[in-house]
Amino acid sequence: MTSTDRHQPKAKVMILLLVALAVAALLSPWASSSPDGLERVAEDLGFMYLAEGAPLLEGWMPDYLFPGLPHEGLATSLAGVIGTLVTLGATWGLGKLITLPRR
After folding, report:
1. What average pLDDT does the structure give for the chain?
2. Most buried by CB count within 10 Å: which residue of 5, 57, 70, 74?
């Protein structure tokens, strides 16, 4: 195995990460603003009022918007990028836990 062969998987991962971040940043603002499946069912069946009030947990980025940014498109893009990085980190950490050598 040459040193070039050893670095190719890292290069592929970096390229895929850049593609994922570009998709998150550029396409997030065009995501549908329609209610998701559960919200739609709750609206159609008339029990949406049960979900209103104090939330059980506060989200970091409610409604997929990074807080504090006045431009909605930029706030959505940043939320998409951060969500992608958090998902990558969680997946990487879980992968490391699963592949830990057993003693």
Report:
1. 87
2. 74
